Amino acid sequence: MTVSDHPPSKKPDSLINPDDGRRYWSSIDADVNGMLGGFPSVSRIDLRGSRSFLAKLGLGRARGRKAVRRALEGGAGIGRITQGLLLDVAETVDVVEPIAKFTAALSGRPGVGRIYNVGLEEWRPDDETVDTKYDLIWNQWCLGHLTDQQLDAYLRRCAGALSMGEDGKVRGVIVVKENMSTAGQDLFDEEDSSVTRRDESFRRIFEEAGLRIVKTELQHGFPHELYPVRMYALKPKYA
Q1: Euclidean distance between CA atoms 233 and 215, whole angstroms
Q2: With contact defined as beta carbons under 8 Å apart, do 37 and 196 qualify?
């Protein structure tokens, strides 16, 4: 991972170029090794940690029944998380992924719903015929490709697409699982044109987007040479 030395006056997220990011990912193999940057062995540990986090939110399987009616995976890549986790807890999973070659194998798979081959900054939850609501929106290792402003807008769209309970309160939840910068600042990566944010940066953006953290914890068991990874479960502040 190459971290750019950028002028102090320039915010790291201002250096993000979506075309550069998509060129990078278009050159990557459509397999787990490609998705995980040469660390395919962390997939099992990652999915186990995510499954445990969802269970603590009450979003697992109970007596063989799936707790989630419809889920969305943002930045899905080849659908590693959709296939390895979300389809176990959700009846239907929609995916958002701009690189079409990554989602080709998901088309027609049982349980996979709509496939949006657009970037997260372009994704809209509804069209003219469908008012889609989600019990779970999962975002992992993809939000670094959005500027702070784009991330704020994306999270607001996610919040508006969450399902409601019979009591009139928001039932759905947004999960963010991302690398954490420990350098005291957000870091721009020239290789894939993305930003690794600090925990403080995420919390600020969540707050500004009108979201509250209902649960957060660190992923355990990853190799020490990798960034720390934190999970956040989010809901609208006044829901």
Answers
A1: 5
A2: no
Is residue 226 left, alpha or beta, with left meaning phi > 0 and alpha meaning psi from -120 to 50? beta
How far is CA 52 from each of CA 30, 170, 231, rounded to the nearest angstrom? 27, 22, 11
* Contact status, residue 140 vs residue 178, Cβ threshold 8 Å: yes
Q: Which residues pair with 229 in a beta bridge?
A: 179
Write the CB contacts of 216 (distance below 8 Å, at least 6 apart in sequence): 230, 231, 232, 233
Q: Give the C-alpha distances (Å, rounded to integers) separating 54 from 84, 96, 98, 145, 174.
A: 13, 20, 26, 24, 11
Q: 177-193, pLDDT tens digit by residue?
A: 999 999 999 999 999 99
Q: What is the pTM of this model?
A: 0.94
Q: Name every residue whose Cβ is closer than 8 Å to that of residue 157 and which is 6 or more positions away in sequence.
A: 123, 124, 125
**195 within 8 A of 187, measured Cβ to Cβ:** yes
